[in-house]
Structures are given as structure tokens and as C-alpha cells.
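Can't paste images in this forum, so I'm doing it all in text. The chain is below; anyone willing to post the predicted C-alpha cells underneath?
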Amino acid sequence: MTSRRTGPPGHDAIVGGRTALGIELGSTRIKACLIAADDPSIVLAVGSHEWENEFSDGMWTYSLESVWRGLQAAYADLVEDAERRHGVRPEAFGAIGVSAMMHGYLAFDAQDELLVPFRTWRNTTTGPAAAELTALFGVNIPLRWSIAHLHQAVIDAEPHVPEIRFCTTLAGYVHWRLTGQKVLGIGDASGMFPIDPTTNGYDAALVARYDGLADGRLPKLLELLPDVVVAGQPAGRLTSEGARLLDPTGVLEPGTPLCPPEGDAGTGMVATNSVAPRTGNVSAGTSIFAMVVLERPLSAVHHELDLVTTPAGDPVAMVHCNNGASELAAWAALFHRFAAIAGAPVETDAVYEALFREAIHGEPDGGGVLAYNYLAGEPITGLEHGRPLVLRTPESRFTLANFVRAQLYGVFGTLALGMRVLAHEGVGLDQMFAHGGMFRTAGIAQRFLAGALGAPVSVAQTASEGGAWGIAVLAAYLSAGESADLGAYLSERAFGGFRFETTDPDPDDVAGFAAYLEQYRAGLAVEEAAVRAIALKGATA
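Text version of the structure:
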């Protein structure tokens, strides 16, 4: 396995502005990544800031104040890293890109004031709206899509609805404040409202249907949504106000061009070189989702599948699960604490590595242990709320190895249900890439994912870098002024000569996971009962 190079000192590149800066606002961490614009494989500096969503008034949210505090902290961390590595502080960049978790609801009035707290993708309160829109459009509209949030507010006659003049995603909001431009990359836009692949814009026929449904309760939909921009097209420049928002010290100069803001799904595709038909990727973090680039349209509407696009506008089937590796992280934290109080403290990464390696010795089906990672609701399995569970029968083999294997299987359980729908559609897949922090322990989560999908899974050593590097590459793609398509640019410039480590599915793992998944599906009735019986504090479910 080879890694992306952290190349020779980049002093001249930084001083000359021959760089591309990518910033991604993930669910638990804001990351910044600076690369050489001429060779996107060279990482010059990185920075990060940890943050957490809040559950307030029945909604998962982040305050806009925390957005800017986090962005400034991640940027400052990157600047310190650049000074430490190269002896110079960046004053300008060749290009900048912003990415963030997709979907959700940010609504503003005519004075550009936020009307209600940011409603993230994690909220599952939009069931009536999603069902009505799916029936109206003949296209699956998931609960987390922006149009579902908007229409649910209309259905509920929320007081702020008459005041709405602009809606966007988190990436679109940050980009707007940095540039003054109300635009969105096509991949992120495809999680707001369905895209017409022939125009690379919002589907005009469906827009007209929605305007008829809204019946004057809103302005025309196209007046509310950001303009759609495709990768490689300019999307504005950093303003003086934007530069101060990102760098309050005043060193950062305005004028840098920005690429279209994208969602984390699009940057995940870029970061794994999976933008061509018959390729796909799995991104594992707070949520977990798979993206498969399609050769042809699907034959039917499936509630398990979203239809979105690559940053270049090519059609993609997306299996999005609200719950990813957070429950696994909670268990790792418990073992981390146990080691500390037992007088044998270990680093967090070492905890993960020890647990993952123990999982190899577990039984292929998890020994009768089931793990549900449902901290939030899960639309694919029809659950509006979540209750994390470990479930076993008295005859199960409750060993540490089986327990950890069950937890890893649990991360992939709902994803596997959705991927089986794609398989029944006859969707071809030559290669599946994976990225996210849980793949840092070489080969283990990758092996179990290969068993869950029954397909080869490829992982790079830089799998944990993910979308921040991906959006930096999209920024470099803009600054390069390339005429080649995105796939060719990635293969030749970002991944030329770069190798992934590929794991083929082990037959025992495939059979074992299939047995696990059968019990997992049956046990969803227990999860449903837990949601009904155990209420959250201050909530009714």
C-alpha cells in the first residue's frame, strides 16, 4: 500500500499561491487540507476542529456561531501546520473549496437572517412531506432532503414559512458568506431537489409540480434555491468579508476563486476516484452511505435509494444510512476508559486496533450477538427514532471477539439492506472504494465490509483524510483550467501511479454476514419496540 505523498517543502508553492485549500464540515470534525495545485497528490498542510451537533427542541442542529468558530479553528490549525512544515504562513491560495454534510434545511428571510435553527440531515420529522413529494414526483424523496424539510414546514404551517426567501445547505451557506454567491455544486444540489441530467439543473417539470402544490404559500421554488454549478466551473471569489470570516487575523487576502461548494457524498467520490460508471464508494462516519455511479436509469422507485449526481453531474444511486460509526466509537471510548482505570492506559487509536484485531477471531455470524447502531432514526428501516441496542439469545457465544464483530457488522447492517436492492436492480459494480476513520486499522473493517457487500473493497492509506482532500482536489480542478472531464483529471493528476489495497470477500465472511443480516432484519421488531417503550427526555418518542 502506498500513501499520498507529503512532498518536498512547499514554501515556494505556498508563497506563490500555487495551492488549493479544501475545507469540509463533517458531522464530528471540521477538516482543512492544503494541497499543491500542480500535483494534487501532495498534501502541504492539514488542520481540524472537533464539534458536535446538539439535540434542541426536538431537532438535531448546529448553531451558526459554532460553524464559524469551528471553521476559524480548523483554518488556524492548518496555518500553524504550514508554518511548522514550511516556515511560511499562507496569505492567498490558487483556489478554495468548501464542502459539508449534505441535505438539511437552512432558511433565510429577505434580510438574510436565519429564520429557524439549522435542521440537519439527521432529523427524521419529515415523513408526511417526503411521502407526498415522492408520490407527486414519481421520484424517491428521502426524509433528509432539503425539499422535504421545506415542504414539511409548509404542511405544518410554521410561522416562518411566509418569510422564506432563500434555502440552502451547510456548504452552500458557508460558500455564500465567503463569496456572496448563492450557488451550489450539482452533487449537493441533487440532495436538495431532483436534477434533470439533460440540463444539469433542477428538474423543471417537477419544479412546476411543486409550485402548484405549494399554491402560493411560498415564492416560486426557483427563487428560493441556489443556482446549480458543475465541477470545473467558477463559483465566485473570496470577498474581504469572507476572508475575515475565515481568518480573523487579517492575513488572508481576498480575491481567491472558489470552486462550486459540494456535499460530503461528492467529495467522497472524488477522494476515492469513483466518479465513473460501475464504480462506487462507501463513506463511514456519523452516517454511512454508499454511492454507485449508474450506467442506466433504475427500473423502479425504491425508498432505500436516492438518485443524486457526481460533482460532474453523472447519475448516482445513493444508499444513505443515518447511523454509522458513532455507536462503535462510544464502545471504544468505554474500553478506553476501562483501560485507564485499570492502570493500563492506551491511546484511542490503539483501542480501536486492539478491538478490531480481536474481531477477526469472532465467529463468521457474530456468534448470535446483534448490534444496532441506531442513535437516530433510520428511514431505510422505517424508524423515525433510534435506540442503540445489543441483543443476544441465552445460547449466543458472548465473547469479546463476537461482540466487536457484531458491532462492526452493525455499522454495515442497514447499508447492506439497501445495497441488496441495487443488486436486485442488476446494477453493475466493478470496484467499491471505502474511506473514513474506521478504515485506518489496516484491512479489518475493509474485510468485513467486503463480506457484507460480497464485493471487493479498496482502501487507501489516506482513507481517514476523506472529503477535505476531495474538495481541495475539486478546487485544484478549477484552478487547473482543465478541458478534460473530471474522471480523466482524477486518474491522471490526482491518482496517477497511486495504488489502493484491495480485499476480496472471504466466503466464510459472506455466508456469516448473510446469516447475521437475516437475524438483524428479524430483530428490527425489537428496535421498534424499544423506540415505542423508551422515550427520550423531553420528547414523546
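The two ends are 47 Å apart (CA to CA). Residues 1-7 have pLDDT under 50 and may be disordered.
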